[in-house]
Design goal:
Length: 102
């Protein structure tokens, strides 16, 4: 009886350890994805700014800043719409939907 209790306890400890390891790895993937996404976004930010300056021959003028803001907004909406359609097509939920549903 005691050996069975100990075996069950060890099994539950292993299960808990495995679950903790899964949560840890998922958290690390999330953090790494966010970090690398930020680096990529900053790189694109500089590339788009340089392109606008070269094409429109503007420095940090108000027109250049608004052009940049409009282009990045349109690009963001396009990417997010495409990702939402892909998620719907494969039956996945987006993070926004999950959070909104509570």
């Amino acid at each position: 009886m005691l050996s069975q209790l100990m075996a069950n306890h060890l099994k539950s400890l292993r299960t808990a350890s495995l679950e903790n390891a899964r949560v840890f790895v998922q958290t690390m993937i999330t953090l790494a994805s966010a970090s690398l996404g930020l680096v990529a976004a900053l790189a694109w930010n500089e590339a788009i700014k340089a392109t606008i300056k070269a094409v429109f021959k503007t420095e940090d003028s108000l027109a250049g800043l608004y052009t940049y803001a409009i282009l990045t907004t349109v690009l963001s909406i396009g990417v997010l719409t495409a990702l939402a359609k892909l998620a719907a097509k494969i039956g996945a939920q987006t993070a926004i939907n999950r959070e909104a549903e509570g």
